[in-house]
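Example record

Each entry pairs one chain with its bound ligand, zinc ion.
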Amino acid sequence: LASDGGAPDQDVPRRTWRTFPKSWRDLNLSATDVATSAAAVLNPQVFGDRSSGTVGCTLVTVAGNRYSGVCIDVPCSMGFCAEHAAVAAMVTAGEFQIAKVVAVCRDETGHLYVLSPCGRCREFMHQVHPENMVSAFK
Ligand SMILES: [Zn+2]
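Structure tokens for the complex follow.
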């Protein structure tokens, strides 16, 4: 059975899945609040051609839980984005449906920037649960 936030089950019609909240208001959240959560996990570490924690991400699931992660950049393109780390934390906890996701970074002056998920992350989130692309970026 598909359940709220659970893994998609191909045998269960989509209409039985939980209806996604459509707005930040429906979720009783603000983008600023979630961006603040994402900024809280930033922890830039740079070692030669490797770095980590330069981008932070927080996602909020349809169940209202938050999961965060940071990027890890290593040679040979084996690293991953902060969104991947946040999704891994979500899936580890047994959830799959993202309601909202925000990724941020800071420049050298401390100014905070909100980043759009890259194409790989958008596809990754969609493949984790097909409804993720419907609502997570509105
Ligand atoms: Zn990405």
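Strands lie at 45-47, 50-61, 66-73, 98-106, 112-115.
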